[in-house]
Amino acid sequence: MRFWGKHSAPVGYLNLNTDRDNVVRSRAPPPPGRYGESFSARLAAAAGRKASTTPDRIAWLLPPTDGGPTFLRIEAHKLLDPASGEAARLKDRVVIIAGEFPYFDRHRTPLSLTTGVEMTGAKIHAHMAAELIDANYSELTPFAARIFLAGLAALAVALGWRFQARRFDVLDWRVVSFAILAADALMFKSAHLVLPFTLAAFAWGLGIALGAQARGAIAWFAHHRVLRS
To answer: Which listed site, 7, 122, 147, 219, has its alpha carbon 20 to 30 Å from 61?
Structure first.
């Protein structure tokens, strides 16, 4: 802390957010203190990014189709060798300098399901910075998420109301999960957006329950009102 306080260089916190299953899927919120921006956000700002909001979920880049690496990687001894010409390849690029150790700073990510390999922290931050620089956000904005959830809940209420008398089990968890996963996959494929699955499932189930119960409640209220009159 004292060392950074003596220098004017911008400093960002490391924000890898490890879930309970030890998989990194999202960014950690800023810690209390002086560092309000993350390391990847600082890198993106240095590359010209102007946006002030940062998504929580990380948009991972798939490996190139030619089988090459996702990011340019240059070993230190080659970079320091003028004869190699590697230093010229870094011109106008965002560069992350880090060590690569066999059993240190290794993390599981969603890509580990296919590659079977843990990813270094530096490479994860490269994915995070690339997402911000390219504005390749994989999440809905808070306003768009509210609109999506409200529309889904309204549809669920209508279906619960319509099919309650026919005993159409739209509350079945398998049906709900398949429908939301299919919509999630379609949105990701067509628009590179990840839908809020947990909130969507909750909104769907709650809407179905409200629609089904509202029909019965209104019928009960109307019946007792007739009896009183």
So the answer is: 147
Residue pair 40/132 in contact by the 8 Å Cβ criterion = yes
Average pLDDT of each block of 10 consecutive residues along the chain (229 residues)?
Answer: 63 86 87 78 87 79 83 86 84 88 88 86 92 75 81 83 60 64 72 72 81 73 62
List of residues 6+ apart from 8 with CB closer than 8 A: none
- Whose tokens are 């066999």? That residue is 102
Q: For the full predicted model, state whether its pTM sits above 0.85.
A: no
**What distance in Å separates the CA atoms of residue 167 and residue 170, rounded to the nearest whole number?**
9
Q: How far apart are CA 193 and CA 187, in angstroms?
A: 6
Q: What are the extents of the domains in the chain?
A: 2-134, 142-228
